[in-house]
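Most newcomers find our protein records easier to grasp once they have seen one. There is nothing in a record beyond a sequence line and a structure line. Getting from the letters to the tokens is the skill we practise here. An example says more than a description, so a record of this kind follows:
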Amino acid sequence: MNGKTLEECRAELEASGMAPADVALIAPQKVFEGNRPSNSILFPCLTPRTLGKLIALYEHKIFCQGVLWRINSFDQWGVELGKVLAKKILPDILQTTGPIHSRHDASTIGLLSKIRSLRSNSVQPFTGCGGQKALLLSHSDGSSAAVYLQGAHVTSYRGADHIERLFTSSRSHYAASKAIRGGIPLCFPQFGGRGTLPSHGFFRNVDWQLVSSNTDGASCSVILSLHSSESTLKLWPHDFEATCSVTLSGCGQLAAGADSSTGSLTVAVSIRNLSGSSMSVTGALHSYFRVGAIERTSVILDARDYEDNLAGGAVCAASSPVTFAAEVDRVYSVARQNSLESNLILVVDAARSSTVRVLSQQPYAVVWNPWVTK
């Protein structure tokens, strides 16, 4: 980092109109030698949690250094220098393309380059909870999504406003063959207990393989695959090939999962039957949405009727919106004109003044909330 000599400090103060006596007193306090090692901490996005971490870290560091070195930890001249330096680099921080101005020192240019790379569309591998392999999709508008290879499981989705849209339980066991609780589990080839397989099938419990990743100006995406194996054939006697694509799109790119003002997340699954016989399946992308207050949340959908799993599967006439004052476990038959028509479901979160738009081509929609006891 470039410093500031005594002569530069004097000239700066004199140009501000300060009296000569005050210049002589203050100028030595503003000298900064420069070329000192420093640390910079970058987060992919600024959230209340990351901001709190930074504040706590620097408050602790500054206080301890002041005690150990017997200096004024809250030196106002250093604060003022920080403001001056910030104003110089702000234009290059806000600009996402074009060359970085050469007036900066080498370390600042490197830092600005790193910031730009974080803000560009990218797909990066990372080690998730429990040491599991995962992928982070990041969009230049600030939105992001996390996908675990076990189960092709989306565990996080934040729009351009950085608000988390998915709920993942703190009680989840991130372990081999253990389903992650929350996010968007892929329930297949069986949903719930509607068959002879373990509840929700086995797709969410096994490792998928990364086939490809792609980034362009509008989106970033990954494609994962799963093939039948000796272990799956013991559970389900069918050869198959499955793919799951996860696409993160920027603001204005409306798709399943979010309002166009904050971007969108699209999850698509395809299954190819490679066996010589037909297969009977049920399945779901069993999304867990995070809301501000369940009592102030409603679901709007166009449905004819629903199966009430809390009443032994009794079929009841549907009404909209669906509200929550106790446990709800229903499978709605969605009204559609044809099999290619997408049905729109709105999750209205009044507590956060937010609405999530869900587009699906499936004839059914599950509305479930376990309430408090579960």
Remarks:
- The two ends are 55 Å apart (CA to CA).
- The chain has three domains: 6-119, 125-290, 292-374.
